[in-house]
Amino acid sequence: MTFAVLAVSVASYTLMQSLTVPVLSEIEIVFDTDQNTATWVLTAYLLSASIFTPIMGRLGDTFGKQRMLVISLAALSAGSLVAALAPSIGVLILARIVQGMGGGVLPLAFGIIRDEFPRHKIGGAVSVISSLLAVGFGTGIVLAGPLTSSLGFRWLFWLPFIVTAIAAVVAVLVVPESPVRTPGRISILPALLLSGWLVALLVGLSEAPKWGWGSPRIIGLLVLAAIILAVWIRVETRVATPLIDMKMMRLPGVWTTNLVALLVGVGMYASFGFLPQFNQTPSSSGYGFGSSITESGLMLLPGAVVTFLVGLIAAPVASRIGAKTVVVFGSALGGVGMFLLAAFHDEKWQVIGSNIVTSAGIGLAFACLAGLIVAAVTPEQTGVASGMNANIRTIGGSIGTAVMGSIVTAHFLPDGFPKEIGYTAGFAVLGGALLAAAVAGLAIPTVSPEELEERLEMDPADGPVVRDDELSAART
């Protein structure tokens, strides 16, 4: 029951990232607004989630993961309800900010699994939950079209409201409170500085394709983000109880895994965001298939299914050849899929096949990244470490989307659609990012069984809680 609640929570959070992507034009019409304003329905959610994911993870480490999980689910549910009833675009954007507070479900889920699950089930549970990140994002794009056409776009929020409200109630009843806590008070200044540099960075990246990378506003936002980031790091190293432990972030097993997460995020989010646009482009433009929202989403369905399936087998495979090897192979496989898409996209089966290859690779990488982070830190740091890892994936997605948007929109055809060369070059760049993730994965340290025993939780009753699959992988 605990695992079911965690899976539903993570799936709901991830679905909310992508459900609105294919229907932004519909929202623009319903609320009689412009495209730039409608885009903030997505941007506001990503900004809010980026800020609250590490903060809620840290609060869970301090005040209790079950308690903060319920609060995160309540925020997702409340935000979904307000969004479903929103009378204006402003209220809808505000509701999306509230929904973003639900980003805490991800680090909290990993923390609860590590604290509560039997040692032989931790690796598999982490892999499945991790794979739901990619599965949920792809599934949201698939479901958006059928739900909107049959029930209306507001049901994109009614259904998550119902599901997350039930999950919150069940979490109160069945999810045990984790005994592992990090003592100390939460400092307010680091939280404000974290929010500041994330907002400046993500707004700058998301608006760069529209305003231009050389725009004074974009340059100003990126410089501001760099300044606040530097101040934030300095403050975190000086406060008595840091929000994010900088010593932890410098651990080889943490920073290397975060670098891979950044690069994998570049490839995954941007490919999911632009493939529907490619599919929906009229074939009269010389490429594309003129697909409807529903049809273009269904073309991504096989990839979403493959992502989930490889997530189920990732833990057993990692126990044999090592999680690091799986991450490197998965990232490289994803890069091959993107290069295939860049070279061959004249037929639907080519796009579907390339997406399956890419999804399989990303699914393998995602399923093992969280496990590597969990193994690299102490139990008290699980929430904040996995929260920052998820946050870095989102930042990577923002970078990839901004770069892809700039490349695709660099040249237009007379009919107003981007030229094919833009998509070809963009997909090739994403393939390069995934191959770079594979190279970065080689730097992830190989963890010995002795080091794992020191890092993973010591249970007073049972002794060291060390996963069998991790020990096997380390020995390999």
Short description:
With 476 residues, the protein is mostly helical. The protein has 2 domains: 2-186 and 241-475, Up-down Bundle (Growth Hormone, Chain: A), CATH 1.20.1250.20; 187-240. It has helices at 2-18, 24-30, 35-63, 65-85, 89-100, 105-116, 119-151, 155-174, 188-211, 216-236, 246-249, 252-280, 293-298, 301-321, 323-343, 348-376, 382-408, 420-441, 449-455, 468-475; strands at 458-459, 463-464.
Protein described:
This is MFS transporter. InterPro entries: MFS (IPR011701), MFS_dom (IPR020846), MFS_trans_sf (IPR036259). Residues 1-449 form the Major facilitator superfamily (MFS) profile domain. The chain has 476 residues and is an all-alpha fold. The chain has 2 domains: 2-186 and 241-475, Growth Hormone, Chain: A, CATH 1.20.1250; 187-240. 78% of the residues lie in helices and 1% in strands. It has 20 helices and 2 strands. The protein has helices at residues 2-18, 24-30, 35-63, 65-85, 89-100, 105-116, 119-151, 155-174, 188-211, 216-236, 246-249, 252-280, 293-298, 301-321, 323-343, 348-376, 382-408, 420-441, 449-455, 468-475, and strands spanning 458-459, 463-464. Strands 1-2 form a two-stranded antiparallel ribbon. It starts with a helix and ends with a helix.
Features:
mainly alpha, 476 residues, two-stranded antiparallel sheet, single chain, 2 domains, globular, Growth Hormone, Chain: A, 1% strand
Map the helices and strands.
Blueprint (H helix, E strand, L loop, with lengths): L1 H17 L5 H7 L4 H29 L1 H21 L3 H12 L4 H12 L2 H33 L3 H20 L13 H24 L4 H21 L9 H4 L2 H29 L12 H6 L2 H21 L1 H21 L4 H29 L5 H27 L11 H22 L7 H7 L2 E2 L3 E2 L3 H8 L1
Antiparallel strand pairs: 1-2
Helix pairs in contact: 1-6, 1-7, 1-8, 2-3, 3-4, 3-5, 3-6, 3-9, 3-17, 4-5, 4-6, 4-8, 6-7, 6-17, 7-12, 7-14, 7-16, 9-10, 9-17, 12-16, 12-17, 12-18, 14-15, 14-16, 14-20, 15-16, 15-18, 17-18
